Amino acid sequence: MSTLPSRVKRKSGPERAAEIARTAREIARYDGLDAITLRAIAARIGVTPALVSHYEPSTEGLVATTFGSIAGAELAEITKELSALPSSVEALRALIDTLLGPDRSAVTTVWLDAWSVGRRNIALAREVGVQMDAWQAFLVALLNRGCARGEFAVADSGALAWQLLAIIDGINAHAVVRYGDARGQRDLVRTVAEHELGLPPGTLSAAPA
Amino acid sequence: MSTLPSRVKRKSGPERAAEIARTAREIARYDGLDAITLRAIAARIGVTPALVSHYEPSTEGLVATTFGSIAGAELAEITKELSALPSSVEALRALIDTLLGPDRSAVTTVWLDAWSVGRRNIALAREVGVQMDAWQAFLVALLNRGCARGEFAVADSGALAWQLLAIIDGINAHAVVRYGDARGQRDLVRTVAEHELGLPPGTLSAAPA
DNA sequence: GAGCCAGTTGATCACTTGATCAATAAGCCC
DNA sequence: GGGCTTATTGATCAAGTGATCAACTGGCTC
């Protein structure tokens, strides 16, 4: 009797936990936060639902964590990218181009899901608040830095940050739901930012030399 | 033996159908589109789930219809209110005040749900598109009327309508998710509209004489 | 190579959902 | 008041959800 290859592929605890978290992120991006399910995750990594449940005692918590991970990763990536730019004006320009760029639909749909599902998932609602505040704080820091350098002036950087984020979120939501691309609406954000910061029109549009 | 009062309260077909539709709207406003359930509706009107299923063969369709009803009713109401105003500038001012007014959270959450759930409910996605287009068409008509009357000028009313709606939706989404009130952000929409329409600053803020 | 720890399974429970259908009974018409 | 239309029920199904737990076993340690 030939020994059948063992069907069980054993992994270390942390390794399996990371695999589950990564799979949850993939599902969220592809099929939405609601598609994060014990069985969906288990099926993807070829494992029993009980195992997923073993590593993630609460599915609600996993959903919240997954959202926070996706939103936080993007913020971290953008933070890193912008930190390489010399001026705050260029950073702001790059931020707008990125946040309203192509291939944004996955992240945007996750945010839309979070806004909707958050009402039934307290942990997720809390994470949504944390992430929104983090984005606002990031933009406030960027604006304040530009002010300190004398690149532009702004009366209330906190309020302006919320305004710009609201516009960007609205544009992206419309783009995802109704069309596919938000790039055509970049000028709206640019114009508002230039106006509020006292920058000459076109400053945020032109590509850097 | 006293005859127990009959537990069945019979209603005419259309009457029951209307009651179901109304109940679905109430549930959607209070608990979200996802809370629209055969059993939830049945329980509210004191009836068996099978009866609801009898009048609404598909729950997906009911969800789409309910969303369309809520969104359409608001558009109809606003259309009526604004039609009483003499000038397009006043209409625009009133529109902004209404769409960013208090007590908007119920409608906004329904929209957020629709954006999210629409990805799993084709009929709902279609209805979302119809409603978004209807709102845009309404705003385009308002802008074009103002142009024809010489109240203001706009290069591309279609694009401006989408921009203003995107800003309003973004502000409302933020307000619902993070805070409770969107009124503090009205000036953002006013400023953009005034700028794009060539109106003097403050035109859309002041209350009419 | 024996033994043990930890990762993994399979079975199972409780619950919610949409949906179907024969059977019942309410209320109207003649 | 008999009969007929139709609103309504109760029972039931299948699918899908999260969650639990005793039992199993892979692979490392000694």
UniProtKB/TrEMBL annotation, chains A, B:
<dbReference type="Pfam" id="PF13977">
    <property type="entry name" value="TetR_C_6"/>
</dbReference>
<keyword id="KW-0804">Transcription</keyword>
<dbReference type="InterPro" id="IPR039538">
    <property type="entry name" value="BetI_C"/>
</dbReference>
<feature type="domain" description="HTH tetR-type">
    <location>
        <begin position="22"/>
        <end position="64"/>
    </location>
</feature>
<dbReference type="InterPro" id="IPR001647">
    <property type="entry name" value="HTH_TetR"/>
</dbReference>
<dbReference type="InterPro" id="IPR009057">
    <property type="entry name" value="Homeodomain-like_sf"/>
</dbReference>
<dbReference type="Pfam" id="PF00440">
    <property type="entry name" value="TetR_N"/>
</dbReference>
<keyword id="KW-0678">Repressor</keyword>
<protein>
    <submittedName>
        <fullName>TetR family transcriptional regulator</fullName>
    </submittedName>
</protein>
<dbReference type="InterPro" id="IPR036271">
    <property type="entry name" value="Tet_transcr_reg_TetR-rel_C_sf"/>
</dbReference>
<dbReference type="InterPro" id="IPR050109">
    <property type="entry name" value="HTH-type_TetR-like_transc_reg"/>
</dbReference>
<feature type="domain" description="BetI-type transcriptional repressor C-terminal">
    <location>
        <begin position="90"/>
        <end position="195"/>
    </location>
</feature>
<keyword id="KW-0805">Transcription regulation</keyword>
<keyword id="KW-0238">DNA-binding</keyword>
